[in-house]
Amino acid sequence: MPDTGFSLGARLRGLRKERELSQRGLAELAGLSPNAISLIEREEISPSVATLQRLAGALGVKMSYFFETETLARVLRVRSGERPVIRGAGLTIEGLGARLADQQMEPFLITLAPHADMGTGQVVHAGHEFVCCLAGHVQYEIDGALYLLEPGDFLLFEADLPHCWGNPGDEVARLLLVLQAPDGVQEPARRHFSDYPSVTHLG
Fold first, then answer.
1. Which residue segment(s) compose the domain that 140 sits in?
2. Residue 197 falls inside a structural domain
3. Does residue 1 form part of some domain?
4. Number of folded domains in the chain?
């Protein structure tokens, strides 16, 4: 994969400092250990999806903030091999790497090793969640109910229901995950806080 200049650790550190939070302060807000924050910022470990969602919630941004770059385009084409990637234990997350103005959809391509999952614990967030199983099998638990997806199966649900997902099978699984974040960014916020670009990613 070519070097896209993407650095999750630097992005997390910059956003934390913008919020005037110590590593311990962010850890308390996100329900993580200060050591975990330090390791992620130094890029010595890769965070799980659940950890990224906790960090995004604690910092008040959408999860895609950790992947994206600013763009003025109205049409985005991202070629295979040009997407920013985060790799963890049994998990690969590929983001779009850029966004449209006031974009409300956050697409991710997820690859799961056999028996890997999104990370510890269930998550809840605003908006809706869409998933399409592309290969293997993906199991979602939503509000206590289990859904086993085969290639070509879709799920669409209200994301304020507690949910988690994983690969229950012995083969690699791939899924398209699209998070919908309501209430697109408003131009007044962009203008008022031009020195704080992350405000345009507030959920």
1. 8-182+193-201
2. yes
3. no
4. 1
Q: pLDDT tens for residues 9-65?
A: 888 998 898 888 999 999 999 999 999 999 999 988 888 888 888 898 888 887 878
76/78 Cα distance (integer angstroms): 6
Radius of gyration over every alpha carbon of the chain, rounded to an integer in angstroms = 17
Q: Is position 187 within any domain?
A: no
Q: Is 18 left (phi over 0), alpha (psi -120 to 50) or beta?
A: alpha
Q: Give the CATH number, domain containing residue 15.
A: 2.60.120.10
What is the C-alpha to C-alpha distance for residues 178 and 94, in angstroms, rounded to an integer? 12
DSSP string covering 77-102: ---TT-S-EEEETTEEEEE-SB--TT
Query: Taking CA 37 as the corner, what is the angle to CA 34 and CA 41, rounded to the nearest 5 degrees?
Result: 140
Reading the block at residue 56, the tokens are 């995004």
- The partner residues of 110 in beta bridges, in order of sequence, read 93, 175
Which tens digits make up the pLDDT trace of 75-117? 888 888 777 777 777 888 888 767 777 777 888 898 999 999 8
Give the predicted TM-score (pTM) of the model.
0.64
- Spatial CB neighbours of 43, under 8 Å, sequence gap ≥ 6: 7, 8, 9
Cα–Cα dist 106/92, whole Å: 16
In a domain, 154, yes or no: yes
Q: Encoding tokens for residue 161?
A: 């229901």
